[in-house]
Amino acid sequence: MKNSFLNIYKNKKIIITGHTGFKGAWLTFCLYLMGAKILGISKNIISKPSLFKTLKLDRKIKSKFINIKDFKKINKIFSQFKPNFVFHLAAQSLVKKSFEDPKETFLSNSFGTMNILSALQNLKNKCNAIIITSDKSYLNVEQKKGYKETDRLGGIDPYSASKASAEIIINSFHKSFLIKNNNISIAVARAGNVVGGGDWSKDRLIPDCVKAWSKKKTVNIRNLKSTRPWQHVLEAIGAYLFLGYLLYKNKKNIEGEAFNFGPAYKKNYSTGEVLKNLKKNWPVKAKINVIKKQKFRESTLLKLNCNKAKKIGWKGILNLNETLFLTVFWYKNYYFNKNSIIKISKDQLNKYFTRLGSQLKKLI
Known about the structure:
The protein contains twelve helices and 13 strands.
């Protein structure tokens, strides 16, 4: 990947929490290809199949399987490894599970984030940290205009509330402690609904579809009218890496700030529209069943205002058709063609970051 802003990560020591998850595995694979020295921290491998295992990352990097709730172990790892960069993605990320186990959700998402911040505070070396939260950090009032970074945080469901709580903790910790620490720079990323090849998480639209359709089964859908800022996983990790680059270069108006990262297109597409596209490109007949009664409350309308990210030079490059094409292409090769999924993943990374590099050429 010949891209000047990615070159800063070569030979750097990088901690990635949640590295066995969907976004974490893609981020880990990208930085591994860039020659970074990676230490991953995760509680476990959360899904089967697993992108982390599929890309053979367990053989390529060092991993520590511990819970981020354990501050002593987290602090020891940070102090011994002395990271140049930290990307904090570890979280309990499912809305449905947050209703089933709200205590674990708050401990992982809110206090787990505080443990990461405390470990950063204790570092003696210079380190740039990107803390990834969620678009669901905003108090969702079902408004049509996109939420911007200054809008009220909050959440009715435990997942959203835990992420909003994490944001409050981050802001407090930064202003109380980290802003006085010349070694540590942080920024917060709030991404939209991320899709792409290799996601097998439970209760998510595309993973549910591909798991069912690959076995010629019918998939259950909760709400065809729900809209989300769907974006490809490469757009999200590209944004995280760009934010890390700006921190590294000491760019103004980055440190301590939060940024929304959403798709390139302005329209928010519904679940029904996404399903129509997926079904059209899936190689065998795809069936759906809409569940009429829901056991838990979920936001229907969610949109992000990404103008702040545009001001620092970031803009997504993939439209919805490209996003879903890349996603379906990956899964079709995994389930049906049996082509090298590592090669396909590498090709998708290379093509995306080459295209992104052309867009960012004037900024880097």
